[in-house]
Amino acid sequence: MASLEMLPVVSGTKDGRFAKALIYVGSGILIVAALAAIFAPLLSSWGPKEIDPSGTLAAPGGEHLLGSDGNGMDVWSRVLHAARIDLGIAVLAVALAVVVGTLLGLLAGYLGGWVDDVLMRIVDIFQAFPTFILALAVSALLGGGFFNLVITIAAVNAPAYARLVRAEVRTLREMQYIEAAKTSGASTLGIMWRHLLPNSLTPVRVIAPLNCGWAMLTLAGLSFLGLGVTVPTAEWGSMISLGTSDVVAGRWWTSVPPGLALLVCVLGFSLLGEGLQERADAKSRR
Amino acid sequence: MLQIEDLSVVIHRPGRQVAALSNVSFSVAPGEVVGLVGESGGGKSMVARAIVGMLPSGSHATGRVGFDGDDVLRMDAAALAHHRGRGAAMCFQNPRGALSPTRTVGRQLIDRLVTHQDMDGKRAAESAKELFAAVGIRNPSRRLEAYPHELSGGMAQRVMISLATGCAPGLLIADEPTTGLDVTLTREILRQFRHAADTDGRGVLLISHDLASIAEVCDRVVVLYAGTVVETGPAAQVLRHPAHPYTRALLRSVPDVSGGRAVATAGGMPLMTAAPHNCPFAPRCAHATDVCRETRPETKALSSGWSLACFHPQEEPLFADTVPSNHAESSGHAEPGRSAEAGRVVLRVQDAHVVYRSRFGSGGHHALRGVSLEIKAGETLGVVGESGCGKSTLAKLIMGLVEPSEGSVEVAGKSVRKQSRVERTRAQMVFQDPIGSLSPRRTVADSIAEPLRAAKVSTAERTKKTEAALQRMELDSSILTRMPHELSGGQAQRIGIARALVGQPDLIVFDEPTSALDVTVQAQILDVIADVAADAGHGSVFISHDLATVRGFADRVVVLYLGRVVEEGPVDEVFDNPQHPYTRALLGSAPRLGETRTADVELVKDLDEADAATGCALAARCPFVTDTCRSQEQTLQPYGESRAACWRIPELPALIGKSSS
């Protein structure tokens, strides 16, 4: 009753259309970013690690579209090529986190008992630290490199999925269709795989895109501090870090373009996530 | 007082449009109880919302909702706020959901009185107590301190009524006030509405899908179908000699406790996208002619106050052959196949106890206290009792979903504890919530074939058996690829039954299989179940709080009360000649159409689980209680072919005679 409006004569609902717009804009941004990453070599005349000895800190325009940095590398090309690393690590890390977290959540939520206790205490330990501090610690332990970063970022995000899925499973397991499956002789694994998994993923679908955005920020943060991807590999966080001193000297073009690229991509993930959330809400309201 | 004229409501949603109400007109006078009946989708709740000015967003209303001379549809916000508190007040279907869970019910009531009636705190507390007493709440000052979760369903509904009547509204609207309540309570709550109309001269609009239960308290009845009023008239007229085919279908869909069987009407209610141009009931109507399919019938008056919208008013009596000729039918029902296999026991429950341990500390809830049952193949056992008596626990126990803390359960000769996964499928269950018992992201085909999957049946064989089960349910095989949310309740329940049948089990447990369905769909499903239960190959347990549906096809019946069997025996003997006071009370409060009831036993108080501790469990509610009852546990005593657990049975007829005279 509470969600009903009190007006007898009114217009149609806006929720559905708003959600759709968010999803379109968000995924539009991400598709453009992904295309830029894929076709980066075609879109830039310089290589990402190619050094132009004659043009360190060249201003935008001329030979370098967005100028060049302190090492004489082309900023435009590096911004494009960095999208491969940033998007790639973020998406892979979140995918890994979803798989691992969901699995742990399923086991803990459905089996309960000591399995639940042990798994959730481990999750507690992970969640006891601020995400970024934990990421710092794990990456210091594992070292840099593409796959180590994927593992680092997945490790800090997986506990949240474990908790989310566990909570969902704990309500789902009391449902009549689970009882029906039990009385139909389904095995424990069968119930988890065939019934609990597909039904517990709804919130995960909403959180995962938002999470990709945060993962990019974590990665950029690590690289900014020199723990993630290091120069000369093109990565937005390390590029921003490299350019900080230039900005003070008035040479904005080394830091601002990677910063903007990061902002736009995170925004894309956020909008997509918001849109999915909005759509799920609109559905449940009906 | 309330005068609805030509009210139409169209709801616009992106991509679709629903004509929720089309040209609805009726009125409610002060002191009158008007019943608004029909199945879900008929527009009952929409009428209620229109009256309090709370139509859903996107709706467009035309016509007039006249209330004491004003039109609710054209009120501004301030007038509406005043109208809602004092003009028309609403009692919701789910009273616990409508009460704020974190504040005591007394606080909620007193606050309301202070804001709307300009009372000071002390006077409000006084009148709160009076209001509680007026709706039959014993010990009102103690109940005022209670939080909603501490109240039973019936108590919560009483609180809701007192909240609604608190501001002395002219009109009380009750939206399905007794859904989910037991027969004994339903009667009690409906009386409260009658009382509100009689003593305070209020108008009462009683919305219900269940014609029979509101029959007793209504003055007039309005029947809705697909957003149109099909019949209006005095309750006695409409309920006993209805003329509209839909009203008749509705009434015939309800099985009668004295043995009358439900007659099913095929089809379901259409969803209207615009005001109908023909008779919306025509596709389901046996009397429909071309006129019905082409033109919409006008509402015509038959006699004073009785009108209907139909070209072919029916006149012959509603139940032509319902006099307990059912006996012959039900004995003919026992086919020869039955006796042949009659020796095979498919379920044996011996002295089973179930205790739900509370998670913290030592206490626990003793849900079953020594139940023994035996079912042979081809036999159907009915299990009845109020909610909280242990019916669902019994079902879970049989299915192996809960473990007995004492005693044993054997399905097809094998203890439930020692079953393998395949043996588990020997007992199948049909659940109460048809859609909720189907996995939301699995297709219908997947759901039906689930028991076969466990039994390692090959894919080809699975498809074949699934199709066969589907055919028996009279469903088209195109439904196999659909998802549960695309199904209607009736279809979903047929799928549930198909799933139970597909592995040819030894036992099927039906746990309230029709209570979540609409009345005419209920009758269709009951037909299907009666057919399935008559199979000689398996035994059936039919659990229901509705005595009439059990009577329809059970061979024997067990009456449960607080985890104990209080009476058991052949269904006709127990229902025609009940012995135990509890059974008598249950049967006495079961709704009957067309008769004035004489309840010979009336229970006092509501069911309370704490009563089960010592002596006879019914002692606290039984009008014939003695000290012996309070101290001694009762065991089942044989009478005729039945048994009942009450030591005063021989004296009861005399006692009942005394109390009623």
UniProtKB/TrEMBL annotation, chain A:
Principal place of residence: membrane
Top-level division of the source organism's lineage: Bacteria
Similarity comment: Belongs to the binding-protein-dependent transport system permease family.
Record InterPro entries: BP-dependent_transpt_permease (IPR050366), MetI-like (IPR000515), MetI-like_sf (IPR035906)
UniProt keyword list: Cell membrane, Membrane, Transmembrane, Transmembrane helix, Transport
Protein's recorded name: ABC transporter permease
Segments traversing the membrane: 21-43, 87-112, 132-156, 214-232, 252-276
Chain ranges of the ABC transmembrane type-1 domain: 83-273
Transmembrane listed as a keyword: yes
Compartments where located: Cell membrane
Pfam family, one: BPD_transp_1
Record's bilayer topology term: Multi-pass membrane protein
Keyword tRNA-binding: no
Gene3D superfamilies given in the database record: MetI-like (1.10.3720.10)
Automatic annotation (TrEMBL), chain B:
Pfam families noted in UniProt: ABC_tran, oligo_HPY
Signal peptide per UniProt: none
Chain ranges of the ABC transporter domain: 2-251, 347-587
A molecular function (GO) term: ATP binding
Subcellular location, principal: membrane
Membrane topology, as annotated: Peripheral membrane protein
Protein's cellular compartments: Cell inner membrane; Cell membrane
ATP-binding among keywords: yes
Gene3D superfamilies to which the protein is assigned, alphabetical: P-loop containing nucleotide triphosphate hydrolases
Keywords for this protein: ATP-binding, Cell inner membrane, Cell membrane, Membrane, Nucleotide-binding, Transport
NCBIfam families: oligo_HPY, PRK11308.1
Family affiliation: Belongs to the ABC transporter superfamily.
Protein name: Dipeptide ABC transporter ATP-binding protein
